[in-house]
Amino acid sequence: MSNCNIPREFGPEDALAPDAPKFGEAWHAQVLAIADTLVTSGQISATAWAETLGAERDADESAGRADTEETYYEAALRALERLLDGAEIVASGDLKTRRDTWERAYLATPHGAPVELTAGEK
Amino acid sequence: MTSGTSFDRDKLAKIHDHLHSHLPPEPALRVKALESLLVERGLVATETLDAWVEAYSEDIGPKRGAQVVARAWLDADFKARLMEDAAQAITEFGFEGKATGDLKAVENTDDQHNVVVCTLCSCYPFSLLGLSPAWYKASAYRARVVREPRKVLEEFGVSLGDDVAVRVWDSTAELRYLVVPQRPAGTEGWSQEQLAALVTRNSMIGTDRDLEVK
């Protein structure tokens, strides 16, 4: 039977396709690495992680955002931030301050030099 | 050259520098902030994160699950252990993972097909299959495979006769699933390595069924 006329969203796995890169962006990998490490060490529970990520994905869908790898990992990042803020592990205010400090450090560091924070900036 | 042109050139050079500055994109900056605070507070180690990223970029993928399936085809005792307690059985390979959680193996037969989804988010047996494919995380798959599994499977190229029942397994943070596909005919006497090479990622999720003998 031919499947050609079926309107489809999915397709068979292509055995001949070259291996796609596992992570589109380095930060995608880092978000999952942090989440998995914190679940493994018991800092956050697997259930809380799944539920918070699910809620962020639902919020994306309700808001009509595109359903892509990029929006998936953005939802994962928001879920992680929200969980850590709620568990008083990393307060959202601390995170914002540190984000701004990193931004200044990036902008102030010449090309080619490693971007680092001095003790006073931490 | 007029002074006006010179001013514009300076301005353009500044814009150019800004565009090419190595300021990471916004989410990357937030991840950087989160990671540095967690490291300072002793909650994660940079080396652990680096090792995780390297493992999932290079080593951990569906070939692991394929080894487990091939072993189950060859070794009836192992298969019994896998069906009884899959999380325990995969420790024989060193494939266990905290994020894989408890694991249940579900076996395809002539009259039953199994397919796995996570309707909540994207729970998946990472330590066995590596990262989940994009479609597994997409809301279209999560919603539709529960509502109309046969139609979704048809789109994946799996045509099921009316005599084959479909069971959809919904993963959670605590319990994930591995589909054990059927061993194809014509593979008698094959080694575990040869058999494992036939097992596709999708067949272990359930969006592939009849494995092709190459």
From TrEMBL, chain A:
Domain Nitrile hydratase beta subunit-like N-terminal residues, every copy: 16-102
Superkingdom: Bacteria
InterPro entries cross-referenced by the UniProt entry: CN_hydtase_beta-like_N, CN_hydtase_beta_C, Elect_transpt_acc-like_dom_sf
Pfam family, one: NHase_beta_N
Region (Disordered): 1-21
This protein's name: Nitrile hydratase subunit beta
Species of the source: Halocynthiibacter styelae
Lineage: Bacteria, Pseudomonadati, Pseudomonadota, Alphaproteobacteria, Rhodobacterales
UniProtKB/TrEMBL annotation, chain B:
Entries under InterPro entries matching the protein: CN_Hdrase_a/SCN_Hdrase_g_sf, CN_Hdrtase_a/SCN_Hdrlase_g, CN_Hdrtase_asu/SCN_Hdrlase_gsu, Nitrile_hydratase_asu
Single GO MF annotation: transition metal ion binding
Keyword Lyase included in the entry's annotation: yes
Alphabetized UniProt keyword annotations: Iron, Lyase, Metal-binding
EC nos: 4.2.1.84
Gene3D superfamilies noted in UniProt: Nitrile hydratase alpha /Thiocyanate hydrolase gamma
Superkingdom, taxonomy of origin: Bacteria
Chain sites annotated for binding Fe(3+): 118, 121-123
Catalytic activity, as annotated: an aliphatic primary amide = an aliphatic nitrile + H2O
Domain Nitrile hydratase alpha/Thiocyanate hydrolase gamma: 27-207
Annotated family: Belongs to the nitrile hydratase subunit alpha family.
Alphabetical list of NCBIfam families matching this protein: nitrile_alph
Protein's UniProt name: nitrile hydratase
Organism listed in the record: Halocynthiibacter styelae
Lineage of origin: Bacteria, Pseudomonadati, Pseudomonadota, Alphaproteobacteria, Rhodobacterales
Name of the gene this protein is made from: nthA
